[in-house]
Write a structure and sequence with these properties.
Layout: E1 12-18, E2 27-33, H1 51-64, E3 67-73, H2 75-81, H3 83-97, E4 104-108, E5 120-123, H4 131-152, H5 160-163, H6 169-178
Parallel strand pairs: 1-4, 4-5
Antiparallel strand pairs: 1-2, 2-3
């Protein structure tokens, strides 16, 4: 059962990201402040619910949240920052977008940098424990999936509409066959035999 609040503060923001382990496309982060009466029976860690359920949840979260923000850190910036810093930067940008300033921030995972003067707590597997982090994970995942489906039209041979940029066997095979695109992360090991890949 997901809990609504960690800190006891009324304006508590949950934040999470999607796409850290992908070979292509952006890292997408989201931050959400939920009202204290929020509930939805489908809400859970976005990795544990189907795409159909995530699509149902997204408009509900956007309509009922007190505030939410979503930010994209594209592959060039991921390469420049490294993926952990890109995730933290994305979370910070999402929090900046919130129309209400949070009193406390709860973060999925174990790494974060302080945001302004607002106290925070990192929570391992927080997206399976707290509603606001789960809601942020749903927004991050659905916005990212939508983007990957869009760029799939440009490069259908990589099948991003299905693998969403993750390192599946099929995705790696397409990289081996067709090389890397502008959407691939150059700092990532795109193939096990990286040295043979013409970037």
């Amino acid at each position: 059962m997901l809990q609504l609040n960690y800190s006891g503060c009324k304006l508590e923001a949950g934040t999470d990201e999607a796409g850290r382990g992908c070979l292509s496309g952006p890292v997408v982060a989201a931050a959400v402040i939920l009202p204290d009466n929020f509930q939805h029976q489908l809400l859970n860690d976005s990795k544990q619910i189907s795409e159909k359920k995530r699509q149902k949840l997204r408009p509900y979260i956007e309509e009922h949240a007190l505030a939410y923000g979503v930010s994209f850190i594209h592959q060039e910036e991921v390469d420049e920052l490294n993926v952990l810093q890109a995730s933290i930067t994305g979370m910070h940008r999402s929090i900046e977008q919130l129309s209400i300033q949070p009193e406390f921030i709860i973060v999925d995972g174990n790494k974060f940098k302080p945001f302004e003067e607002i106290p925070h707590q990192t929570i391992v597997k927080g997206d399976a424990k707290f509603m606001s982090i789960a809601a942020a994970s749903v927004l991050a995942k659905t916005y990212r999936d939508e983007y990957m489906e869009k760029i799939h039209q440009e490069f259908p041979q990589y099948n991003w509409q299905k693998n969403k940029g993750y390192p599946t066997k099929e995705h790696r095979e397409a990289i081996r066959q067709f090389g890397a695109t502008l959407y691939h992360r150059k700092s990532f090991k795109l193939l096990p035999e990286q040295l043979k890949l013409e970037l």
